[in-house]
Amino acid sequence: MKRITVTVLLMMFSGIISCEDHKSGHSHKAKRNNINTSTANKSDVKASVCQITQAKAVYIKTIPISSNMKEYVQLYKENWAKLCANKKVSLYKNFEMANKIMSYFQLIFYTNMKNKALRQATQDYMYSVHQFLPGISAPHSEYNFSIKMSHFRAFSDLGNENDRRFLSIHNELMGDGVLPVWYTQTWDLGGCVNYGEHPWIKSFKAIKEGKKLDGQAYQIAILRLETLLLSALDRSMFINNKSTGICTCTPGKDNKAKAVVINDYRNIISYLNKTKDYPALYKKLQLSVTAIKNESLKILVDREKHCSGG
Predict the structure, then answer these.
(1) How sure is the predictor about 191, in pLDDT bands with cuts at 50, 70 and 90?
(2) Are the C-beta atoms of 179 and 187 separated by less than 8 Å?
(3) How far is residue 125's CA from residue 119's CA, in Å, rounded to a whole number?
């Protein structure tokens, strides 16, 4: 089995990974995340969303879907059809509905994949539902669906200021990649941390602003991103009093990587000292700076050690 990082597991169970057709964990070249701000691309995405919206919902006998959910899906698709007609519909309501539909299909997918008799039919069907469900991506290799945020961003002009702020913050932190922007993806479900390159303080501030937004569904999405940010900085510290090493993308020899990680940690420590946020992380980062200096906490460079899994 492929080794999957703690951060990726968090993303799987939170349904936050945004990817299409990742049916295996094969290694590939490192890829930086995309933050999508292109107006031309937004037009293309709108056209794609409206095409998906027009597609008839497909249901098969071997995968029973409740009549209530079928009606809910129809209402959801009608809301997207109104957006495609430039009619104002609550983007927040659509986001709530997308999460409910995603969770429903994900539960069926996860349950049926345990049944050998239903496994193939379930997999084939579940990898097709994104063809008639706008706002939802195909599941990846761990049977998790995700919200396709680019579909919502494409219609941000029809939302309100709260919607636009949420979509902007989410895009800033997640972009359109498989992993949040503080990672470089080195395989389908994992990557190294962009120490020395990622603006950590900016991300902390974005999350703080996001937590002030209206709407429970938006709040939950921001909290999931907060968990992923903290896990990126916290997961490689100490487990059972043993250092696990820090996997950084920073190129060059170990001494350079150490200096870059320490510098990032010190900047974050300084910020947290002022804000008094995340006291547990503040203490752990202080311990880690000391541990890196005395080499009890190892710094691994992904290009040299491929420490990010896969």
Answers:
(1) confident
(2) no
(3) 10
